[in-house]
């Protein structure tokens, strides 16, 4: 029926999409447009408001925006049928959304103006980036941030409209309902095409696609309007424009915002609630908003939030430190647990970076045996989240390394609760050790008795001299839960001391006494000099990261 | 692929066996595995006795480098300075100190010397900013024997982190183990100050030769 008078753009859309769906969509669209008060739409179009902004200001429902291409001329031509309405065919950037909802922007690298024909085309470039980065995803979460200028434009336009049309009958029904934000509309528009192109659904996913719009023109009223509308951290940057504010939370790390301002808000609220503000804003401008000659600058990035792998590690070498240890550009020890595990897992996840966290630590010359020590490996921007099978392969790979200094157990992917699990009650957890001890006289059977009778013995340890340079001089009370001596065949003065202690106990100092600064010590208990030759951790008594 | 099938059929078999038998079967491999792991762990822990030295180096020998200041400020006033890799210095009386030659050995130690009682100061914090800065000739304490008393000095310019206040109640520690539990104090010198004083100190070897201890 109305097909004859449709402008060229719509027929190209018809060519792309399924005929039936297109018709239904068009009918919905036309219906929505025709429900609007024409004189208001006319005024909006004349001050340079784009078609989608017109619809969203009136609170038109979401699914309408899925219609891929919808321009000012389309809007005009629908209205033309009804009234004698001549619309300007010339394209201009929307004075409210600055081209965001017209899928127009200034490209980050080239600094050229890009005008996408439709939401689908826009989604196409984004999907290209995702494929380029090589991400393997099962969902995505879309995030958009727009410059504060857009919100100001919107609020001043809305208050102008309120002033002018408050008395009209449609006003109560229409404008009082919340108008949709630019962000929401953009998301509505490109989410479906993105889902189609990427083959996955939009959901609360660890894979984030972020569109950040900024505009050269700094807002002059950020202090007033924005402060009232949101609570976010902010810091001032000293630039040529004195009222330049940068929002900490939403700025992407690698973007230099010295010349731009950007803001992230949750909703456009309170525009009408504060009468004082309305007066200020509408007095400030003669026409409700100023027209713009250039669109926003757009940067879109995609990345995955951190993924975590947890497990327990074992350290068989006395020359491998837990974490990278470099003094004056020289590495201490031949390798580190952190690097061995991280460097073997990172490439498989195709991540950017890794961070290693463990529940406690042991000295470089102390082996970590038995059940192993719980650890968490954080992978940043993984392109691939490893499956259970791949994780098992990772574990075998590390355990099968030629240099058998590190082993891994119970490796698996875990959510952010891994943190809490690992640090839960860390200070209370007991640790079990085996020390190779020498005493200055032969070991007697009595000694074995004496030692094994001591249960939950309290000791006082002054900060060991070997760490006194970097720790506070304190006296710490620790508990030795139990001890057991195991004789060594062929030696009368060497023996193995098995002991279980409170977390944070310095074992070496407990054996040799640290010049009497740990009391009692093994030496003082046995009434002779005691030295420790080797120490091994045989059990870290924590419940986390064990096999189910 | 075929392994997968075998595993699956095995699982099926297990579920069809009666409960009690099933539990037993499940427990046995678990117990055996645990025992096996214990054994393996134990093998790693037991050392090779043939590799053990008859007398191992002491903790002091392993962790510190020993220096000596013979006749420091006064003849017979032999003191030691043990320096740790982290820069801290433990100072004390060398075995050749005159005080040990007196009959009965050392009977009392008093930290109240100079302008303050050294045993009363408390150093706090990682940076130890409230520690007192002393010169190498600043007095640390006075040790008394039956006949005489001797002043013990810092030997090293730096911040005083700790004095061995146990010596107040147990001065006999100096007689039994002046080189260990009978240490006098712990001092933290600045790197530049250490380099300066180091030139005036003797190594263990040099000291032994000097005092004919070899």
Automatic annotation (TrEMBL), chain A:
Domain Pus10 N-terminal eukaryotes residues, every copy: 94-232
Domain spans labelled Pus10-like C-terminal: 308-540
InterPro entries, per database record: PsdUridine_synth_cat_dom_sf, Pus10-like, Pus10-like_C, Pus10_N_euk
A GO molecular-function annotation: pseudouridine synthase activity
Enzyme class: isomerase
Membrane-spanning intervals of the chain: none
SUPFAM superfamilies given in the database record: Pseudouridine synthase
Enzyme Commission number, as recorded: 5.4.99.25
GO BP term, pick one: tRNA pseudouridine synthesis
Alphabetized UniProt keyword annotations: Isomerase, tRNA processing
Protein family per UniProt: Belongs to the pseudouridine synthase Pus10 family.
Database matches in NCBIfam families: pseudo_Pus10arc
Name of the protein described by the UniProt record: tRNA pseudouridine(55) synthase
Species classification: Eukaryota, Viridiplantae, Streptophyta, Embryophyta, Tracheophyta
From TrEMBL, chain B:
Positions with biased composition (Basic and acidic residues): 1-14
Listed name of the protein: Protein Simiate
Top-level lineage group: Eukaryota
SUPFAM superfamilies: Single hybrid motif (SSF51230)
Gene3D superfamilies: 2.40.50.100
Species of provenance: Theobroma cacao
Disordered as annotated region, ranges: 1-36
């Amino acid at each position: 029926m109305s097909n004859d008078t449709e402008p060229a753009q719509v027929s190209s859309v018809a060519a792309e999409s399924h005929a039936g769906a297109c018709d239904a969509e068009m009918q919905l669209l036309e219906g929505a447009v025709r429900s609007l008060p024409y004189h208001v739409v006319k005024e909006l179009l004349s001050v340079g408001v784009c078609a989608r902004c017109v619809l969203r200001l009136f609170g038109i429902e979401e699914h309408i925006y899925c219609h891929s291409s919808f321009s000012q001329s389309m809007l005009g031509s629908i209205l033309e049928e009804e009234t004698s309405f001549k619309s300007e065919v010339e394209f201009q950037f929307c004075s409210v959304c600055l081209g965001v909802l017209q899928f127009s922007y200034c490209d980050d690298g080239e600094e050229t103006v890009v005008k996408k024909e439709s939401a689908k085309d826009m989604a196409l470039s984004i999907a290209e980036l995702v494929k380029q980065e090589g991400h393997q995803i099962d969902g995505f979460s879309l995030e958009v941030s727009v410059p504060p200028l857009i919100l100001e434009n919107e609020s001043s336009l809305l208050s102008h409209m309120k002033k002018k049309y408050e008395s009209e009958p449609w006003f109560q029904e229409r404008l009082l309902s919340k108008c949709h934000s630019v962000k929401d509309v953009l998301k509505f528009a490109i989410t479906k095409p993105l889902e189609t192109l990427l083959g996955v659904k939009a959901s609360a996913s660890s894979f984030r696609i972020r569109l950040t719009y900024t505009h050269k023109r700094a807002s002059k009223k950020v202090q007033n309007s924005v402060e009232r509308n949101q609570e976010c951290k902010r810091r001032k940057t000293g630039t040529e424009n004195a009222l330049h504010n940068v929002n900490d939370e939403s700025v992407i790390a690698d973007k230099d915002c010295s010349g731009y301002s950007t803001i992230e808000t949750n909703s456009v609220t309170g525009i009408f609630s504060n009468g004082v503000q309305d007066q200020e804003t509408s007095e400030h401008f003669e026409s409700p908003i100023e027209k713009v000659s250039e669109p926003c600058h757009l940067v879109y990035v995609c990345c995955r939030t951190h993924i975590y792998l947890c497990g327990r590690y074992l350290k068989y070498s006395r020359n491998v430190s837990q974490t990278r240890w470099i003094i004056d550009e020289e590495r201490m020890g031949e390798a580190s647990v952190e690097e061995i595990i991280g460097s073997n897992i990172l490439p498989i996840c195709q991540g950017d970076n890794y961070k290693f966290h463990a529940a406690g630590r042991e000295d470089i010359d102390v082996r970590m045996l038995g059940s192993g020590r719980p650890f968490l490996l954080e992978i940043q921007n993984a392109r691939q989240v490893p499956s259970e099978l791949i994780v098992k392969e990772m574990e075998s790979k590390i355990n099968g390394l030629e240099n058998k200094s590190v082993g891994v157990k119970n490796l698996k992917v875990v959510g952010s609760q891994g943190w809490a699990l690992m640090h839960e009650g860390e200070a209370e957890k007991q640790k079990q050790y085996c020390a190779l001890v020498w005493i200055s006289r032969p070991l007697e059977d009595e000694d074995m008795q004496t030692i094994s009778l001591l249960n939950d013995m309290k000791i006082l340890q002054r900060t060991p001299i070997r760490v006194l340079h970097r720790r506070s001089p304190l006296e710490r009370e620790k508990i030795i839960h139990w001890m057991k001596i195991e004789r060594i065949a062929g030696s009368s003065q060497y023996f193995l001391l098995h002991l279980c202690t409170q977390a944070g106990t310095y074992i070496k100092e407990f054996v040799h006494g640290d010049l009497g600064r740990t009391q009692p010590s093994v030496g003082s208990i046995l009434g002779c000099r005691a030295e420790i030759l080797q120490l091994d951790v045989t059990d870290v008594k924590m419940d986390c990261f064990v096999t189910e | 692929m075929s392994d997968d099938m075998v595993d699956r059929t095995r699982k099926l078999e297990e579920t069809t066996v009666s409960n009690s038998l099933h539990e037993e079967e499940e427990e046995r491999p678990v117990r055996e595995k645990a025992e096996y792991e214990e054994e393996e762990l134990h093998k790693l822990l037991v050392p090779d006795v043939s590799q053990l030295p008859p007398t191992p180096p002491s903790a002091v020998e392993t962790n510190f480098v020993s220096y000596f200041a013979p006749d420091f400020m006064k003849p017979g006033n032999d003191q030691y300075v043990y320096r740790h890799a982290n820069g801290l210095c433990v100072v004390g009386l060398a075995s050749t100190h005159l005080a040990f030659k007196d009959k009965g050995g050392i009977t009392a130690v008093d930290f109240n010397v100079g302008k303050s009682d050294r045993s009363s100061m408390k150093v706090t914090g990682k940076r130890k900013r409230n520690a007192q800065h002393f010169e190498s000739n600043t007095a640390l304490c006075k040790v008394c024997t039956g006949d005489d008393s001797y002043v013990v000095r810092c030997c090293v310019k730096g911040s005083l982190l700790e004095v061995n206040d146990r010596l107040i109640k147990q001065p006999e520690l100096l007689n039994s183990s002046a080189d260990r539990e009978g240490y006098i104090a712990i001092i933290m010198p600045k790197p530049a100050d250490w380099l300066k004083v180091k030139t005036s100190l003797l190594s263990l070897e040099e000291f032994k030769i000097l005092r004919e201890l070899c």
